[in-house]
């Protein structure tokens, strides 16, 4: 047996105050899975702190919307108000008193992770509050509002399509190479 391994196990046991070795046979979670677990636990805690407490089974899209609004207080993205002199400017020249909010992209990613976690914890896809239309509308409104306030348009990335002309041009190029160098395999 490797001496380093037994030392690290005994050090872990001494640190935890336990005499039994704790062995974790599961591979470490990916960043996404770790974040999804943290998000799910945070949302669960948010529901428990409601008065009266709400179970996940009782949760609906209104709880999801309230949760996203609650998270705004921890945001780091400056969103200029309509009356602000810097409204619509991507790089304001001076500080202002406009509020910090959660960025649209962060909320969108959060909803995606929580939507997956809901179903992994036994929720039905057709009753998933994170996939509700009201949540999608709210996210779209946040996206549009932040784009206008910050002067940064969000453009959807277009997927490149493989077209026939590119394919035929590639074939012509390969044919020309074969004519110039007949030793290349066909």
Automatic annotation (TrEMBL):
Primary localization class, coarse: nucleus
Region (Disordered): 1-35, 150-186
Ranges of compositional bias, category Low complexity: 1-16
Domain annotation ALOG: ranges: 31-158
GO function terms (MF aspect): DNA binding
GO biological process terms on file: mRNA transcription; response to light stimulus
Pfam family for this entry, one: ALOG_dom
Positions with biased composition (Basic residues): 153-162
Family: Belongs to the plant homeotic and developmental regulators ALOG protein family.
Keywords from the UniProt entry: Developmental protein, DNA-binding, Nucleus, Transcription, Transcription regulation
Cellular location(s): Nucleus
Organism lineage: Eukaryota, Viridiplantae, Streptophyta, Embryophyta, Tracheophyta
GO cellular component: nucleus
Protein name, UniProt field: ALOG domain-containing protein
PROSITE patterns linked to this entry: ALOG (PS51697)
């Amino acid at each position: 047996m490797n001496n380093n391994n037994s030392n690290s196990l005994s050090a872990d046991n001494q640190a935890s105050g336990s005499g039994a070795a704790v062995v974790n046979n599961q591979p470490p979670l990916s960043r996404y899975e770790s974040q999804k677990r943290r998000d799910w636990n945070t949302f669960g805690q948010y529901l428990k702190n409601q008065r009266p407490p709400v179970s996940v089974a009782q949760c609906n899209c209104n709880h999801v919307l309230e949760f996203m609004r609650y998270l705004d207080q921890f945001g780091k993205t400056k969103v200029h108000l309509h009356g602000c002199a810097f409204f619509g400017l991507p790089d304001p020249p001076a500080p202002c008193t406009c509020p910090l909010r959660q960025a649209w992209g962060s909320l969108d990613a959060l909803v995606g992770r929580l939507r997956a976690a809901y179903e992994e914890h036994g929720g039905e896809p057709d009753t998933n509050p994170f996939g509700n239309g009201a949540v999608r509308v709210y996210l779209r409104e946040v996206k549009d509002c932040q784009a206008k306030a910050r002067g940064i348009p969000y453009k959807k990335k277009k997927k490149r399509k493989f077209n026939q002309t590119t394919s035929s041009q590639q074939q012509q190029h390969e044919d020309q190479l074969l004519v110039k160098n007949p030793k290349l395999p066909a």
